[in-house]
Amino acid sequence: MSSYSDKIQSAAGVIDKNGNAWREINAEYAVRMDLQNRFKTGLDIARYTAKIMREDMAAYDQSPANYTQSLGCWHGFIGQQKLIAIKKHFGQTKSRYLYLSGWMVAALRSDFGPLPDQSMHEKTSVASLIEELYTFLKQADARELRHIFKEIDDAREAGDKAAEEAAIAKVDNFQTHVVPIIADIDAGFGNEEATYLLAKKMIEAGACCIQIENQVSDEKQCGHQDGKVTVPHSDFLAKINAVRYAFMELGVEDGVIVARTDSLGAGLTKQIAVTNEPGDLGDKYNAFLDGDYIESADDIDNGDVVVKANGKLLKPKRLASGLFQFKQGSGIDRVVLDCITSLQNGADLLWIETEKPHVGQIAEMVNRIREVVPDAKLVYNNSPSFNWTLNFRQQVFDAWTEEGKDVSAYDRGNLMSVDYDETDLAKEADSKIQSFQADAAREAGIFHHLITLPTYHTAALSTDNLAKGYFGDEGMLAYVAGVQRKEIREGLYCVKHQDMAGSNIGDDHKEYFSGDAALKASGKDNTMNQF
């Protein structure tokens, strides 16, 4: 990448070529505006972030300590503040992504109002949120660079050459807030053509990674709810192909596809798979159907369906809804088959939706998958639908019981109680929660850890705390002590909300365009000067 000084020299050359008509255009100002808008299109972002994600996947293959993380964000501002916080606290954004949750799009971004996670929201809302997230991340770049440009100007005004060079070096080594987004396309919102069309919109908005699940699109349920219905492998693979074609058409050849299986908790299928010969994918799918083997037509009733499986006639159990049921206890085997099949047919990463956060359970499935695909890697949902406290306290309780430790002081069914918070069992459980991501990355093949909807919960919690105090006895002190004072003391840039919203950037532009005649908002009467 050209240096700041080289860019100014190049821009000056363009201006000179256009003669006196461009005399009011300042080369350095033009370069600053260009740097503040590094990514001109969503496809620029998708290509840039796909490369990052592929490099991170290769690094994980070298060492599972190189796992990656993200938090789900339902608004551009939330995503922006997350990345600003990461840069502030850790100095860089490496291995940190954003997650776009279909659940939160349904619950918070639909014109219908709050909806359950059943693909009932407008499909365009997904691509719109990707675009919004990247708009806010690009604005975070513009804001931070603007402050560095101010350092350059102040250093020049003071005649401090060393400070000027140091500020220019910050520009040359600037790290963008733009990071990969793993974007949830649910079950594709329709058939494979619908999946392709939506995937294109998501990629054009900036998505380098699309996650798709093997549920029936018009029967889609949240992965942590009952009633999930899966599709035969051929249907799912057609949608994986559709997403890959979308990536290739748009020139994002290294785009990443995450294939999610809900088979662990899905006990139903809407259709019997097409099979052409014993042992093919359709036959394997149908082999999991629950039912009764029959000898003749006398064993079936009007409207019953019969398939040939394992060399015999099988009458699958069909519910009143018309759905077919899988055999009890077949979930893990179906997950393993789903995952191997997806990786062998174009998927890059896996997502196994589980009912609890248990490293051993995840590792059991991943180890079987890796017998066939050795570099299989997971994206894993550290879901708020899990009661993490109770789950891990019970895991410790069970481990201690197996080891012969005395657990008579604990009631396994009541371990969530605050009465246990200071006990050795609770402390060990918290330690396991703290190390869960590193442990699962090392032992269970998890490349990327995400929390699907944490900012949904943090928004609710912080609003509850403010409302309780502000509308109660604390009055204005609830905001001052609980919000503003903490913003100031913890160094949150957002305390200067006018600057965060772009007021100073706008002032710069006015000066670029109008010179001394610019009417700027950041003068002495701006109350933001109090901070």
From TrEMBL:
Record's keyword terms, sorted: Lyase, Metal-binding
Protein name in the entry: Isocitrate lyase
CDD domains, A to Z: ICL_PEPM
Catalysed reactions listed for this entry: D-threo-isocitrate = glyoxylate + succinate
Presence of keyword Lyase: yes
PANTHER family for the chain: BIFUNCTIONAL GLYOXYLATE CYCLE PROTEIN, ISOCITRATE LYASE/MALATE SYNTHASE
Lyase recorded as keyword: yes
GO molecular function terms noted in the UniProt entry: lyase activity
Superkingdom: Bacteria
Classification via InterPro entries: ICL/PEPM, Isocitrate_lyase, Pyrv/PenolPyrv_kinase-like_dom, Pyrv_kinase-like_dom_sf
